[in-house]
Amino acid sequence: DGGITQSPKYLFRKEGQNVTLSCEQNLNHDAMYWYRQDPGQGLRLIYYSQIVNDFQKGDIAEGYSVSREKKESFPLTVTSAQKNPTAFYLCASSIEDRGVVNEQFFGPGTRLTVL
Amino acid sequence: GQQLNQSPQSMFIQEGEDVSMNCTSSSIFNTWLWYKQDPGEGPVLLIALYKAGELTSNGRLTAQFGITRKDSFLNISASIPSDVGIYFCAGQKYDMRFGAGTRLTVKP
User: Fold this and answer.
1) pLDDT of chain A along its 115 residues, tens only?
2) CA of B87 vs chain A CAs: smallest distance (Å)
3) A42, A92, A109 member nearest B88 (Cβ)
4) Which end of chain A is more exposed for a tag (fewer CB within 10 A), N or C?
């Protein structure tokens, strides 16, 4: 089955620790995205990547880092510099067609709680 | 970035009723998308609209791409309990922007 997987589903960390969230897709999509979702708000873009070994900051990149070493993988690290990291994190992917953004498909999400 | 205004924020309806929600923006978009999110899960794409004025149905769902390209609406007819969830609109031009969501509760 093709799709996007995120792990773990729930993650608890102590304040001051870095934590890495996994995102894998087997849809052969070029573009991948990370969003943060807070209660009552729309999705906010953290980082995105249109091609391997390249990524761009989104609207709220501060305190986060990413890598894109493989097409199918786009891990997100929430660093200790992120002031309010407790949130629901969503990974998405889409076909990239000559700069045109296509509809995005989402993973099941990871709920991060920082204690 | 440009903001999407989605309304209403929440709706409480009786099973069998029809539902309507909409999104507006000050900017134009090339694509409008509607997603549904169940609690604790990722959003699932319901309908994608690619042309101004386009009206598209998916079962009991109908969505339209506004003629000005600055708005879209989603209708759900004859609601059922499993329609419960949060519905998001998304507008896409160079990147994708999301509305804050409409939380739908359906009472049996």
Assistant:
1) 679 999 999 999 998 899 999 999 999 999 999 999 998 778 999 999 999 999 999 999 999 999 999 999 999 999 998 989 999 999 999 987 655 657 889 999 999 999 8
2) 10
3) A42
4) N
